[in-house]
Amino acid sequence: MFWYNIVIITANNLITMKKTLLLLSLSLSISLTYAQTKFGVIAGLNLASISSTSSGSSISSSSLAGFHVGAFADFELSKSVSIQPGVLFSLKGGSDESTQSSGSYSVHATDKLTLNYVEIPVNIFYHIPVSIGKIFLGGGPYVALGLSGKEKVTYTGSVSGNAEANVTFGSNSGDVKNPDFGLNLGAGIALQNNLLFKVGYGIGIANLSNTSGTTSHNNVFGISVGYSFR
Fold it and tell me: Measured in Å, how far apart are the chain's first and last C-alpha atoms?
């Protein structure tokens, strides 16, 4: 009887939990259905870098200039809060420089790693009305699917030249793990003429490295200009 009662109580709790989750899902669906919706386009500058840790040592690459471009939807849940999903083409990666010298021999190498992603962010923003529009700040998770990439090394000095190789995404040694995911933080201003300006920082959580004992993460600082269609 004791175990029977536990089973009944557990079953009732599961039913109650399922009902609660269903009500929450329905509430969110209804909220998004009746929310004021805007769509827009956005583009801007990426300053991307890769931070790595190996054998207890941490290394961060120099910034690589790139860009992002895409579209977004803005679901206004209230006058102060909105949910903003989007789809972006985003360039990430990093750049490194090194010099090797021995006697009269000296070579300077610049290594640029470019990674092209389709990124899907889902941000929640809090809006503060001001005289010229609304200031917004917030953030949310993102997931990004790697499409292609390239590594280019340029040599100058005693030896000059360059070498290029395509980057592959996968689980083999030398591949870049796919997908990337992480957290976006951002703030900006939406003007009354539908223009918006935003700064943001993407913190990569996914480990990009397939090498045991090594972790690598994407980091991106972005400056964006967008336009909302009402």
Answer: 63
pLDDT 10s digits, 121-169: 999 999 999 999 999 999 999 999 999 999 998 888 767 888 889 999 9
The model's pTM is 0.79
Label residue 29 left, alpha or beta by phi (over 0 means left) and psi (-120 to 50 means alpha): alpha
Whether 126 contacts 136, CB under 8 Å:
yes
Contacts of 195 (CB under 8 A, 6+ apart): 225, 226, 227
Residue 179's φ and ψ, nearest 5 degrees, are: -90, 175
CA distance 156 to 208: 29
**CB of 225 within 8 A of CB of 193?**
no
Picking from 144, 56, 127, the residue whose alpha carbon sits closest to that of residue 92 is: 144
Instruction: Round to whole Å and give the CA distance between 77 and 88.
Output: 23
